[in-house]
Write a structure and sequence with these properties.
Structural class of chain C: mainly alpha
Number of strands of chain C: 2
Largest sheet of chain B: 2 strands, antiparallel
Largest interface: A-B, 81 and 88 residues
Number of helices of chain B: 25
Helix content of chain B: 55-70%
Strand order of the largest sheet of chain C: 1-2
Chains: A alpha+beta (379), B mainly alpha (827), C mainly alpha (107)
Number of helices of chain C: 4
Strand order of the largest sheet of chain B: 1-2
Order of helices and strands of chain C: HEEHHH
Oligomer: heterotrimer
Shape of chain B: globular
Distance between the termini of chain B: 78 Å
Shape of chain C: elongated
Strand content of chain C: under 5%
Radius of gyration of chain C: 16 Å
Chain lengths: 379, 827, 107
């Protein structure tokens, strides 16, 4: 895993180290103290890889800001140029309700970024699609093969990955889990790529062994030797070592995505009903929205999910995994958007006829306008 | 006696009635196996057509092919039919047909039960088909999550068809599982010890034990949900102390083992065929047995991985994530053992081998994606998307359909006695293989791109159109391939040339008989000394046909076979099977009437149907047994064994024991549900507990203990030459005391509709009451049998069976009464 | 039947302990044991670890027990296969229940 790049935007990365570098019982036991301790460590290495928002070209003397201030602000401060991987979430700097506003993103090099507020609902616009596909793929290669510096190998890898991406219409998309726009979705996307490569290698290995079984000039060996090699060696030894590594990786990622106590956390409530979502905000009790969830960018948000009727599931693929809304239970999901923008949300548990159209939007506001927005809306 | 005359005599005794009328009264395993397979492939066709409709719907964006109401029915029925009406019955059919032949015996343990199971399956399946034709099919998805499937959000009859129809069909799975377990353990050729069993039998044994313990939670869940829908008992309603998560636990407690119940028989087919195709023996027989057993057990510790997104704490998820990765180890052991077998031998590329290669490629991918979704955070993204749909098809189509196609082509010469003539199969394989991967490979990707499963349509802007179109086109290619297989098989059955016996030069006993096999399988039973008897004993088939094996000396007037000792395989006793009878189909029809009355809410009919079933059950058991002692029987080779009814561990005892395993799992699931609601559900504790009653507690435990003790005394009296009548009556009294006390408790408990606590208590009480009544009936029947002269110091089998049920009643009554009374005492 | 039990017993025991510890986990979280500290650990974690160790102990006891009464001497097919499933159950107990040490309690 690459460790050379810094990602100071991800809050999740602040927690991981203390928990997992000393993964001792006692430290896990003390969940709350860790959270508190961690919030002081403003920056830390993100072992999960730089992701799309991390400055691959970012200058090393980049000023490390607090999580809440990263993103655009950090860019402005350092003037770093960031290669985009995601289809650039729009910067929603002000409540997009009832007004049409276009804002040119500063310090970013491609595409026009719009935040259209048509009928009060900001629309997503895609621009420079192909360019970004290739670029994002090269970004992934960077991420997955950090050590590769030789131009040819790199080119080959980039081409290979790009070909895969392009033939499958890319990793991009408003609903794509492989186009992450937040720390949780990003670490899961990385997990996927690692598993995909591992799986491909294992598949090739097994199929190679299978094909070799059809050779005609095989050496005669006894059953005992066969058993040692196939069953003990490959069946037990090989499977168990691969699986142990994967299980550990999965549990580490899972631990890091848990909604731990953090002073910075914003609390919102999501209530599902056939076929709409109602969102309310802990800091502004009178404010309620339907099918649109407002969150601040760059800050962890805990969504308290429940349901009024049947089982639903809250899912914003570009931000985090899903969590079910179950009648009688309140579940807590941690989401976070790196940048201001609009993200598509889906209901991901079949709930009857209106299931296909049961969707919502998540609007992430720039951190400095968030409080103002809430105050404005609550009035 | 010449082989031909022997054949004629045996055939006259064993065959079903000629013509199609024979189907309704046959109890022969070869007939019923074929009927099972034909019916299950008919349902495969139906499910396949539904799959094509799904792909037609999703082929393009903004599809207007079917509306959401119809589309929900289509995908629900596709899943339901493929799981319950195709996959499981195909295993049942194949095992019913093959097991006695492979084990070197003449039929399964309980022939009438085989037939009853088939008719339950046929009638239950018909119920679901009717709902489909009328457009009122289940529409809540194949895992039927409440509250969506509760009475409020699904008021129609659709869901009832699922709950009642599937429960009806599952009776056949439970029947088959009991039967396979007893058959594999007891009905084998003499000398076939556990380590000489064909590997398929091991897999079938493990699968059967899994059905016995895997299906009861679903049956319980279905009953609870149907009771909630019909009578308003709130098991899954959060506002009355229920919890919809309880359903998810019960469903997946069944649902995950189900996947391995489907895969393991297929793995058994592979382990049987692959060594034959590679001209060698299976590598690591003992390891494979151990890994099949390990796989079976581990698969019961995976159910929560279907619930990673329901908000269970991370430690809970981690247990199941760990178990889900670990389950890949025994699977890996088997896959590598198979590849090692190929390395060991000289593989030949016959048609079954092509399907096995298709299996290996597909299943390895499915296993790898399975390990991916076992990783909790990844599942949070992949759950309920097309990625899961793709994964499960890789595992189920790869892990079941390819091996079954291999098996069909492998055993077709045995089924028909013909040799392959038409070469459609190879072409069909290519189409199926390419079509399958075209359909599902890219579906992983579209799932990661955010396409949820079960959506009826999607926008162009999502960018999913191309992949979906590729999927749909490929799926039709696959369908054409499968249709070609069908044509190939039909042509083969009717017009191919006669072939020779054992075309593959295989070693297992099913090839040591005529093809197609006669109704009695073996004219005489072999003495087995190795795992591959056929090449080891020269001219085995002819020697058996000449009557040189066991039972060759017996007159062919009754349907007889041998039961053996479980471990060593030494002859244990002689079994006489019942002959052709219409009793199973009649019993199944009355059972169907019972379910139908619940479905269409003709509740006046329900008690009549129950009464009918009771009468038929009495007829069923009354026909067995003898009024005179037979003594030891000559079975050839100088061996003498008693008759089954003159032992204390008769087939009926073993059948009861394994049925009680399933029954105990059901009861355990109920207790789990009780504890789960208590600890997890919102709205507990209830406002009112059951007032504790010492009298009831004493009556229940005391009555049950009396019944247990009295049954033991009755059996001892009988052994010593007495009749045991008075003790049987005392046992009956004890059982009735249990019934009366439980009935009182049910009468005075809080209203069952008021809270999930009362509702669960009601079910718990009803369960104990049902068993008390059942036990009382058995004791009354035993009394009548003693009076009618069916018992003697030798003919003692029935005492042991009734005693077993009385013991079970005592256990559940004690636990049930404790669970009901203690909370009130503590409160 | 004894031979069969010898093969099945270790994994039956694993399944029982696995389910019981999962049940204990649900009960402990519902009862708020994770909030009660007990020395360096919480009550919840000490209960879980104790249960885990007990399950392990039971597995080893069974592994040792199947060598002797009531299962008869070692060797033979059932003995060898029982040994395999016995060790499989030990590994399964270690592998599937290690989260009691490594993961967060009730979040």
């Amino acid at each position: 895993m690459p460790t050379r790049k810094r990602d100071h935007c991800s809050t999740e990365s602040r927690k991981e180290d203390a928990v997992w570098q000393n993964a001792l019982l006692v430290s896990i036991e003390a969940v709350a103290p860790i959270g508190a301790e961690n919030s002081k460590q403003g920056d830390s290495y993100n072992r999960m890889g730089p992701g799309c928002s991390a400055g691959a070209d970012a200058s090393d003397n980049q000023k490390l800001g607090r999580a809440g201030k990263c993103g655009k602000q950090a860019e402005q401060e350092t003037g770093a140029r960031r290669p985009k991987c995601g289809p650039g979430p729009e910067d929603v700097t002000a409540p997009p309700v009832e007004n049409v506003r276009t804002e040119k993103a500063k310090g970013q090099r491609h595409g026009e970024r719009h935040a259209h507020g048509v009928n009060g609902m900001p629309q997503y616009r895609d621009a420079g699609f192909r360019l970004r596909v290739t670029r994002s793929c090269s970004d992934w290669v960077d991420k997955l093969f950090p050590g590769i510096r030789f131009a040819h190998c790199r080119k080959l890898l980039i081409l290979g990955t790009a070909a895969t991406c392009l033939t499958l219409s890319g990793c991009q998309g408003e609903y794509s889990t492989l186009d992450p726009a937040g720390p949780a979705a990003r670490s899961i996307a990385t997990l996927w790529w690692v598993m995909l490569i591992g799986a491909a290698i294992i598949l090739l290995l097994v199929m190679g062994l299978l094909a070799a079984g059809f050779r005609r000039n095989k050496k005669e060996v006894g059953d005992a030797a066969h058993m040692r090699f196939w069953i003990v060696g490959l069946g037990l030894g090989f499977s168990m070592s691969v699986l142990a590594a994967l299980l550990a990786y999965g549990l580490v990622v899972g631990e890091r995505l848990l909604p731990r106590a953090d002073a910075d956390v914003v609390e919102v409530h999501a209530q599902a009903e056939r076929w709409r979502w109602r969102f309310s905000y802990a800091s502004q009790p009178d404010f309620e929205t339907e099918n649109v969830l407002h969150i601040p960018a760059g800050r962890p948000v805990d969504v308290h999910v429940t349901s009024l009727d049947v089982v639903h599931s809250f899912w914003v693929p570009r931000l985090a995994g899903k969590l079910d809304a179950i009648p009688g239970h309140v579940n807590r999901l941690r989401i976070e958007a790196d940048q201001p923008g609009v993200f598509k949300g889906l209901t991901a548990e079949f709930n009857g006829e209106g299931y296909g159209g049961h969707v919502f939007d998540v609007i992430a506001h720039a951190p400095d306008t968030w409080e103002a927005f809430l105050r404005e809306e609550a009035r | 006696m010449t082989a031909l005359r022997r054949h004629r005599a045996l055939d006259a005794t064993w065959s079903s009635r000629p013509g199609f009328r024979g189907w309704f009264s046959t109890v022969n395993h070869s007939d019923l196996g074929r009927m099972f397979l034909a019916t299950s492939f008919f349902f495969f066709l139906v499910g396949g057509i539904l799959a094509m409709l799904i792909r037609a719907q999703l082929a393009t964006a903004d599809s207007a092919f079917a509306g959401p109401e119809i589309y929900s029915q289509i995908f629900t029925m596709h899943g339901t039919i493929m799981m319950f009406l195709f996959a499981i019955p195909t295993f049942e059919g194949l095992a019913i047909y093959l097991l006695p032949k492979m084990l070197g015996t003449r039929d399964l343990a309980f022939p009438r039960l085989t037939a009853y199971g088939y008719w339950c399956y046929a009638f239950g399946g018909t119920m679901l088909l009717v709902s489909l034709l009328l457009g009122i099919a289940p529409d809540g998805g194949w895992f039927m999550y409440p509250p969506l499937t509760g009475a409020i959000y699904s008021p129609g009859i659709n869901t009832d068809f699922w709950l009642i129809g599937i429960t009806f069909v599952e009776i056949s799975a439970i029947c088959a599982a009991v039967e396979f377990t007893v058959s594999i353990l007891k009905y084998r050729a003499p000398g076939m010890s556990l380590d000489k069993m064909p590997i398929f039998a091991w897999y079938a044994l493990v699968t059967s034990l899994m059905i016995l313990t895997g299906f009861p939670p679903l049956i319980l869940g279905s009953i609870l949900l149907e009771v909630e829908r019909a009578f308003g008992l709130p098991f899954f309603q959060a506002d009355l102390g229920g919890d919809s998560l309880l359903w998810q636990h019960l469903f997946w407690l069944f649902g995950h083992p189900e996947v391995y119940i489907i895969f393991l028989p297929a793995a058994g087919v592979i382990s049987t065929i692959l060594p034959v195709m590679a001209r060698t023996t299976l590598l690591g027989y003992g390891w494979i047995v151990a890994s099949a057993v390990a796989l079976a057990f581990l698969s019961f510790g995976l159910w929560v991985h279907h619930m990673f997104t329901t908000g269970i704490p991370h430690m809970g998820l981690a247990f199941f994530s760990a178990a889900s990765t670990l389950v890949a180890v025994p699977t890996g052991v088997q896959v590598f053992a198979w590849i090692g077998t190929l390395w060991k031998g000289r593989p030949e590329l016959h048609l079954p081998m092509l399907h096995l290669l298709g299996f290996l490629f597909t299943f390895v991918i499915g296993g790898l994606t399975g390990v991916m979704v076992a990783v909790v955070p990844f599942d949070w993204q992949a759950h309920d998307t097309a990625f899961i749909t793709a994964h499960l098809h890789y595992v189920l189509f790869g892990g079941f359909v390819f091996p079954i196609l291999a098996g069909i082509y492998y055993w077709l010469p045995l089924f028909t006695g013909r040799t392959r003539f038409f070469k459609l199969g190879e072409m069909a394989f290519v189409l199926i293989f390419l079509g399958f991967h075209g359909t599902f490979l890219a579906m992983h990707w579209v799932g990661l791109m955010g396409q949820r499963r079960r959506i009826d349509t999607y926008d162009v802007e999502t960018g999913w159109s191309t992949i979906n179109l590729i999927s749909s086109v490929s799926s039709f290619i696959m369908a054409i391939g499968l249709a070609m297989v069908l044509v190939d098989i039909i042509l083969h059955v009717y017009v191919a040339l006669r072939g020779r016996r054992d075309p593959w030069k295989s070693g297992t006993l099913e090839w040591a008989m005529m093809a197609p096999p006669p109704a009695y399988n073996f004219a005489s039973l072999p003495r087995v000394t190795s795992r591959a008897p056929l090449p080891d004993i020269s001219g085995l088939a002819n020697r058996l046909a000449r009557g040189e094996g066991y039972l060759g000396n017996r007159p062919a007037v009754r349907r007889e076979t041998l039961a053996v000792d479980i471990s060593s395989g030494q002859p244990d006793y002689l079994v006489v099977y019942p002959g052709n009878t219409a009793l199973p189909i009649v019993f199944a029809a009355v059972t169907g009437l019972f379910f139908l009355s619940l479905l269409i809410k003709f509740y006046w009919l329900t008690p009549l149907a129950v009464l009918g079933m009771m009468v038929l059950a009495l007829v069923w058991v009354w026909r067995l047994g003898a009024r005179e002692d037979s003594g030891l029987q000559e079975i050839g080779h100088g061996d003498r064994v008693p008759m089954a009814g003159e032992t204390s561990r008769s087939p009926g005892w073993w059948g009861s024991a394994f049925l009680l395993v399933a029954n105990g799992t059901f009861f355990g699931s109920l207790l789990f549900g009780y504890a789960f609601l208590w600890t997890v559900a919102p709205g507990w504790p209830p406002s009112q507990w059951l007032e504790p009653s010492v009298a009831e507690t004493i009556a229940v435990t005391g009555g049950a203990l009396v019944a247990v003790g009295a049954m033991r005394i009755a059996a001892r009296h009988n052994r010593r030459g007495g009749r045991g009548l008075s003790s049987t009556v005392i046992a009956l009294m004890g059982t009735l005391a249990v019934a009366a006390a439980i009935a009182t408790m049910l009468h005075r408990m809080p209203s069952a509709g008021s809270h999930a606590y009362a509702a669960t208590l009601f079910v718990l009480g009803s369960y104990v009451l049902f068993h008390a009544i059942l036990c009382a009936l058995m004791q009354a029947n035993l009394f009548a049998r003693i009076v009618a002269g069916y018992t003697s110091p030798h003919r003692r089998a029935e005492f042991a069976i009734v005693a077993l049920w009385a013991d079970y009643l005592a256990v559940i009554a004690a636990i049930g009464v404790a669970a009901a009374q203690i909370p009130g005492m503590l409160a | 039947m004894r031979d069969l039990l010898r093969i099945l017993a270790p994994l039956v025991l694993w399944l029982a302990s696995f389910s019981a510890i999962y049940g204990l986990h649900g009960l402990g979280c519902a009862q708020g044991w994770a909030q009660i500290t007990l020395g360096p650990l919480t009550l919840f974690r000490s209960m879980m670890i104790a249960a885990w160790l007990f399950a392990l102990l039971a597995q080893f006891a069974l592994l040792w027990g199947t060598r002797t009464w009531p299962f008869g001497p070692q060797g033979g097919f059932a003995g060898r296969t029982g040994m395999l499933t016995g060790w499989a159950a030990v590994v399964a107990t270690l592998w599937t229940l290690q989260p009691v040490m490594t993961t967060t309690s009730c979040a």
